[in-house]
Amino acid sequence: LVHQAVTTDGSVPSLHVTLSTAQQNAWADMLELVVPEAVTAAIQASTPLRESLPMDYLGYMGIAHTDSEDRTVLSQRDQFKAQLRAHLDHVVDQAIDMIDGASDQMGKRFL
Questions:
Q1: Segment 21-30, tens digit of pLDDT
Q2: Where would you tag: which of 17, 58, 71, 110 has the fewest CB atoms within 10 A of its CB?
Q3: Sequence-ordered list of residues with C-beta below 8 angstroms from that of 93, at least 6 positions apart, any chain
Q4: Secondary structure class of 50 (helix, strand, coil)
């Protein structure tokens, strides 16, 4: 986190020490640890995650299609995103199941 200090009297120099106890102990650090493992576990546990992407997905996904007004393309994009969300739900479930082990790994950093 950004830290800024101001002296009570701007004309007098001040020396202070900032001690952070939250280094490498943020939600982002936990996610960096648990998400890759959760993805691997979800892939092993869920057959649909190992299925091929739709053969024609590049015909409606990607930056070139973000501004499309074609109803078919919009529908395909919505379906693709819904499938992605369902797959991510599997990853989240795995991450939740792994959270105690990940917490222990985070704690080991401070021993």
A1: 667 888 999 9
A2: 17
A3: 42
A4: helix
Q: How confident is the model over 33-49, as pLDDT tens digits?
A: 999 999 999 999 999 99
Q: How far apart are CA 93 and CA 111, in angstroms?
A: 29
| Residue 16 vs residues 3, 6, 65: alpha-carbon distances, Å | 12, 10, 53
What span, in angstroms and rounded, lies between the C-alpha atoms of 48 and 46?
A: 6
Average pLDDT over residues 48-63: 97
Q: Which residue has tokens 């950004």?
A: 2
Q: What are phi and psi of 102, to 5 degrees?
A: -65, -35
CB atoms within 10 A of CB 35: 16
